[in-house]
Design brief:
This protein is of the alpha+beta class and 249 residues long. 23% of the residues lie in helices and 23% in strands. The protein has one domain: CNF1/YfiH-like putative cysteine hydrolases.
Amino acid sequence: MDSALFLVARSLPVRHGFTLRSGGVSEGKRASLDLGPAGDAGPDVRENRARLASAAGLPPARLVLAEQVHGTRVVHGRPGELPEADALWTDSTDSWIGIRTADCVPLLLSSVDGSRVAAVHSGWRGTLGRIAEMAVATLGQEAGAAPATLRAAIGPCIGACCYEVSEDLAERFAHAFGENVVRRDRRPRPHLDLRLAVRRTLAEAGLAEAHIEDVPGCNACEPERFFSHRRDQGGTGRHLAFIAPGALS
Protein backbone atom coordinates (compact mmCIF):
# COMPACT_ATOMS: atom_id res chain seq x y z
CA MET A 1 0.00 0.00 0.00
CA ASP A 2 1.25 3.48 -0.89
CA SER A 3 2.29 5.75 1.98
CA ALA A 4 1.98 9.53 2.24
CA LEU A 5 5.76 9.54 1.74
CA PHE A 6 6.29 6.92 -0.97
CA LEU A 7 4.77 4.82 -3.74
CA VAL A 8 5.03 1.03 -3.85
CA ALA A 9 4.84 -1.67 -6.48
CA ARG A 10 2.23 -4.42 -6.19
CA SER A 11 4.60 -7.16 -7.29
CA LEU A 12 7.59 -6.78 -4.95
CA PRO A 13 7.38 -9.14 -1.93
CA VAL A 14 9.53 -6.95 0.36
CA ARG A 15 9.47 -3.55 2.04
CA HIS A 16 10.32 -0.93 -0.53
CA GLY A 17 9.25 2.40 -1.94
CA PHE A 18 9.78 5.27 -4.35
CA THR A 19 9.57 8.49 -2.36
CA LEU A 20 7.41 11.49 -3.16
CA ARG A 21 8.49 15.06 -2.43
CA SER A 22 5.97 15.76 0.34
CA GLY A 23 6.09 14.99 4.06
CA GLY A 24 9.51 16.37 4.97
CA VAL A 25 11.04 19.52 6.46
CA SER A 26 13.28 20.86 3.67
CA GLU A 27 12.44 24.26 2.17
CA GLY A 28 12.71 26.09 -1.15
CA LYS A 29 13.43 24.03 -4.27
CA ARG A 30 14.15 21.07 -1.98
CA ALA A 31 10.76 21.17 -0.24
CA SER A 32 10.05 19.03 1.44
CA LEU A 33 11.21 15.36 1.58
CA ASP A 34 14.74 15.86 0.20
CA LEU A 35 16.75 12.67 0.79
CA GLY A 36 20.18 13.53 -0.68
CA PRO A 37 23.17 13.71 -0.66
CA ALA A 38 24.61 10.30 0.17
CA GLY A 39 27.46 11.50 2.37
CA ASP A 40 27.40 14.34 4.90
CA ALA A 41 23.69 15.10 5.11
CA GLY A 42 22.47 18.24 6.86
CA PRO A 43 19.87 18.28 9.65
CA ASP A 44 16.90 18.55 7.27
CA VAL A 45 17.95 15.49 5.27
CA ARG A 46 18.65 13.53 8.47
CA GLU A 47 15.17 14.37 9.74
CA ASN A 48 13.64 13.43 6.40
CA ARG A 49 15.42 10.07 6.45
CA ALA A 50 14.21 9.45 9.98
CA ARG A 51 10.62 10.17 8.90
CA LEU A 52 10.96 7.85 5.93
CA ALA A 53 12.46 5.06 8.03
CA SER A 54 9.61 5.37 10.53
CA ALA A 55 6.97 5.25 7.79
CA ALA A 56 8.64 2.23 6.18
CA GLY A 57 9.26 0.41 9.46
CA LEU A 58 13.01 0.24 8.84
CA PRO A 59 16.01 1.17 11.07
CA PRO A 60 17.40 4.56 9.98
CA ALA A 61 20.97 3.71 10.96
CA ARG A 62 21.03 0.64 8.69
CA LEU A 63 20.34 2.47 5.41
CA VAL A 64 23.13 1.86 2.88
CA LEU A 65 23.69 4.39 0.09
CA ALA A 66 26.24 4.85 -2.69
CA GLU A 67 28.24 7.74 -4.09
CA GLN A 68 26.51 7.75 -7.47
CA VAL A 69 28.62 8.63 -10.53
CA HIS A 70 26.37 7.82 -13.52
CA GLY A 71 28.31 4.63 -14.14
CA THR A 72 27.52 0.92 -14.29
CA ARG A 73 29.19 -0.47 -11.17
CA VAL A 74 27.11 -2.86 -9.03
CA VAL A 75 28.28 -3.31 -5.43
CA HIS A 76 27.28 -5.42 -2.42
CA GLY A 77 25.87 -2.79 -0.05
CA ARG A 78 27.18 -3.01 3.52
CA PRO A 79 26.34 -0.76 6.49
CA GLY A 80 29.03 1.80 7.23
CA GLU A 81 30.32 1.86 3.65
CA LEU A 82 29.72 4.46 0.92
CA PRO A 83 30.93 2.83 -2.30
CA GLU A 84 31.27 4.61 -5.62
CA ALA A 85 28.54 2.80 -7.54
CA ASP A 86 25.16 3.21 -9.19
CA ALA A 87 23.61 -0.06 -8.08
CA LEU A 88 23.59 -1.86 -4.74
CA TRP A 89 22.48 -5.36 -3.82
CA THR A 90 22.11 -7.13 -0.50
CA ASP A 91 20.87 -10.32 1.09
CA SER A 92 21.38 -9.06 4.64
CA THR A 93 18.17 -8.65 6.62
CA ASP A 94 19.81 -6.20 9.04
CA SER A 95 20.15 -3.46 6.39
CA TRP A 96 18.27 -1.72 3.59
CA ILE A 97 19.62 -0.12 0.44
CA GLY A 98 18.66 2.88 -1.63
CA ILE A 99 19.58 5.02 -4.63
CA ARG A 100 18.78 8.70 -5.20
CA THR A 101 17.15 10.24 -8.26
CA ALA A 102 15.72 13.50 -9.54
CA ASP A 103 14.90 12.47 -13.17
CA CYS A 104 16.92 9.28 -13.74
CA VAL A 105 15.22 5.89 -13.66
CA PRO A 106 15.00 4.19 -10.24
CA LEU A 107 14.83 0.41 -10.51
CA LEU A 108 14.19 -2.05 -7.68
CA LEU A 109 14.73 -5.80 -7.99
CA SER A 110 13.79 -8.65 -5.67
CA SER A 111 13.96 -12.41 -5.81
CA VAL A 112 10.50 -13.94 -5.65
CA ASP A 113 11.11 -15.07 -2.05
CA GLY A 114 12.37 -11.63 -1.02
CA SER A 115 15.75 -12.87 0.18
CA ARG A 116 17.90 -10.94 -2.31
CA VAL A 117 17.30 -7.40 -3.53
CA ALA A 118 18.93 -4.63 -5.57
CA ALA A 119 18.47 -0.90 -6.11
CA VAL A 120 19.63 0.62 -9.40
CA HIS A 121 20.16 4.22 -10.56
CA SER A 122 19.86 4.30 -14.35
CA GLY A 123 20.41 7.66 -16.05
CA TRP A 124 21.02 7.87 -19.77
CA ARG A 125 24.65 6.80 -19.39
CA GLY A 126 23.81 3.90 -17.13
CA THR A 127 20.94 2.87 -19.39
CA LEU A 128 23.19 2.83 -22.46
CA GLY A 129 25.72 0.89 -20.39
CA ARG A 130 22.98 -1.59 -19.45
CA ILE A 131 23.38 -1.24 -15.71
CA ALA A 132 20.02 -2.98 -15.23
CA GLU A 133 21.36 -6.07 -16.99
CA MET A 134 24.51 -5.92 -14.87
CA ALA A 135 22.43 -5.81 -11.69
CA VAL A 136 20.43 -8.84 -12.83
CA ALA A 137 23.66 -10.69 -13.66
CA THR A 138 25.20 -9.78 -10.30
CA LEU A 139 22.19 -11.10 -8.39
CA GLY A 140 22.60 -14.33 -10.31
CA GLN A 141 26.35 -14.70 -10.00
CA GLU A 142 26.89 -13.44 -6.45
CA ALA A 143 23.55 -14.12 -4.76
CA GLY A 144 22.25 -17.13 -6.69
CA ALA A 145 19.05 -15.42 -7.88
CA ALA A 146 18.36 -16.47 -11.47
CA PRO A 147 16.59 -13.94 -13.74
CA ALA A 148 13.46 -16.10 -13.84
CA THR A 149 13.13 -15.70 -10.06
CA LEU A 150 13.33 -11.90 -10.10
CA ARG A 151 10.61 -9.27 -9.89
CA ALA A 152 11.31 -5.70 -11.02
CA ALA A 153 9.70 -2.32 -10.43
CA ILE A 154 10.59 0.76 -12.48
CA GLY A 155 9.75 3.91 -10.55
CA PRO A 156 8.86 7.49 -11.45
CA CYS A 157 11.40 9.25 -13.67
CA ILE A 158 11.47 11.91 -16.36
CA GLY A 159 9.01 10.75 -19.01
CA ALA A 160 9.20 10.68 -22.78
CA CYS A 161 6.76 13.59 -22.64
CA CYS A 162 9.51 15.82 -21.20
CA TYR A 163 12.94 14.30 -21.86
CA GLU A 164 14.25 16.26 -24.83
CA VAL A 165 17.66 15.07 -26.08
CA SER A 166 20.12 15.71 -28.90
CA GLU A 167 19.78 13.96 -32.24
CA ASP A 168 23.05 12.16 -31.58
CA LEU A 169 21.84 10.71 -28.27
CA ALA A 170 18.50 9.77 -29.81
CA GLU A 171 20.29 7.83 -32.55
CA ARG A 172 22.45 6.00 -30.02
CA PHE A 173 19.36 4.91 -28.08
CA ALA A 174 17.46 3.92 -31.22
CA HIS A 175 20.38 1.75 -32.29
CA ALA A 176 20.69 0.14 -28.84
CA PHE A 177 17.02 -0.34 -27.93
CA GLY A 178 14.89 0.13 -31.05
CA GLU A 179 13.36 3.12 -32.79
CA ASN A 180 10.33 3.40 -30.53
CA VAL A 181 12.36 4.43 -27.49
CA VAL A 182 12.66 7.76 -29.34
CA ARG A 183 9.63 10.01 -29.82
CA ARG A 184 9.80 12.33 -32.80
CA ASP A 185 6.29 13.75 -32.49
CA ARG A 186 7.57 16.27 -29.95
CA ARG A 187 9.28 19.38 -31.30
CA PRO A 188 11.80 20.79 -31.87
CA ARG A 189 14.08 17.92 -30.79
CA PRO A 190 13.57 14.18 -30.22
CA HIS A 191 12.38 12.92 -26.85
CA LEU A 192 13.65 9.81 -25.11
CA ASP A 193 11.72 7.07 -23.30
CA LEU A 194 14.23 5.96 -20.67
CA ARG A 195 11.64 3.82 -18.91
CA LEU A 196 11.04 1.74 -22.04
CA ALA A 197 14.78 1.34 -22.63
CA VAL A 198 15.24 -0.03 -19.09
CA ARG A 199 12.26 -2.36 -19.54
CA ARG A 200 13.80 -3.69 -22.76
CA THR A 201 17.11 -4.24 -21.00
CA LEU A 202 15.44 -6.25 -18.24
CA ALA A 203 13.60 -8.42 -20.77
CA GLU A 204 16.83 -9.07 -22.65
CA ALA A 205 18.47 -9.99 -19.32
CA GLY A 206 15.92 -12.77 -18.84
CA LEU A 207 13.03 -11.29 -16.85
CA ALA A 208 9.52 -12.14 -18.01
CA GLU A 209 7.54 -9.10 -19.19
CA ALA A 210 4.85 -9.99 -16.65
CA HIS A 211 7.44 -9.66 -13.88
CA ILE A 212 8.39 -6.06 -14.76
CA GLU A 213 6.08 -3.49 -13.16
CA ASP A 214 5.87 0.22 -13.95
CA VAL A 215 5.13 2.59 -11.08
CA PRO A 216 3.93 5.61 -13.06
CA GLY A 217 4.89 9.25 -12.74
CA CYS A 218 6.88 11.89 -14.64
CA ASN A 219 9.25 13.91 -12.47
CA ALA A 220 9.36 16.85 -14.85
CA CYS A 221 5.66 17.54 -15.40
CA GLU A 222 4.34 16.72 -11.90
CA PRO A 223 6.04 19.37 -9.71
CA GLU A 224 3.62 18.86 -6.83
CA ARG A 225 4.73 15.21 -6.49
CA PHE A 226 8.30 14.99 -7.71
CA PHE A 227 11.69 16.70 -7.80
CA SER A 228 13.21 17.25 -11.25
CA HIS A 229 16.78 18.38 -11.88
CA ARG A 230 15.94 19.34 -15.45
CA ARG A 231 12.72 21.21 -14.69
CA ASP A 232 14.23 23.10 -11.76
CA GLN A 233 17.58 23.69 -13.51
CA GLY A 234 19.54 22.16 -10.66
CA GLY A 235 19.46 22.78 -6.93
CA THR A 236 16.50 20.50 -6.40
CA GLY A 237 15.94 17.70 -3.90
CA ARG A 238 16.50 13.98 -4.35
CA HIS A 239 14.11 11.06 -4.12
CA LEU A 240 15.07 7.71 -2.65
CA ALA A 241 14.18 4.35 -4.14
CA PHE A 242 14.70 1.91 -1.26
CA ILE A 243 14.33 -1.80 -0.68
CA ALA A 244 15.00 -4.26 2.17
CA PRO A 245 15.33 -8.05 1.95
CA GLY A 246 12.96 -10.25 3.92
CA ALA A 247 9.55 -11.35 2.69
CA LEU A 248 6.52 -9.41 3.89
CA SER A 249 4.37 -11.34 6.35
